[in-house]
Write a structure and sequence with these properties.
mainly alpha
Length: about 150
């Protein structure tokens, strides 16, 4: 994940950042940098921008044993240097994040069931040609009911 963030951050730069140029040493040895090295590179490249934000959607889909590790070794270093973190997750994972990102703010956001139904109806209308109305209604009701206001 850190390598993907680094790639996205450096792509728009006018010239190759010296930190990224050092990746060729790893490539020549057919190696990958360790996570702390990638984080250091990421934070160094972030200084080239006035503001950097990372959006991490569905943190709760990260394997539970990995969540604290991802929070401590990836998210905390980014947060500590002022990179904005916007993380979506189910409530069950908030405590893990708050234990690592101690002074981060948490906002609860919930989708209205009607919003979910409208979204599903639009998606089915655009790509669900040939779905009969009865099945469509059942599908929308089941999915929006399971979403529980995510």
């Amino acid at each position: 994940m850190a390598a993907k963030l680094l790639k996205q951050l450096t792509f728009p730069l006018d010239r190759l950042h010296t930190t990224i140029a050092s990746l060729s040493d790893y490539k020549q040895k057919d190696e990958r940098p360790e996570l702390p090295v990638l984080i250091k590179m990421l934070t160094e490249c972030a200084t080239k921008y006035t503001a950097v934000s990372v959006i991490l959607d569905a943190f709760d889909e990260c394997f539970e044993p990995q969540q604290r590790r991802v929070a401590a070794y990836l998210l905390k270093p980014l947060y500590d240097v002022g990179i904005g973190l916007h993380i979506t997750t189910r409530y069950s994972c908030v405590e893990v994040l708050k234990s690592v990102l101690t002074d981060a703010s948490v906002e609860e956001m919930r989708a209205d069931c009607d919003d979910i139904k409208n979204y599903l109806e639009k998606q089915i209308q655009e790509s669900g040609k040939g779905i009969n109305e009865s099945f469509k209604a059942t599908l929308i009701e089941k999915i929006s009911g399971r979403a529980d206001g995510m």
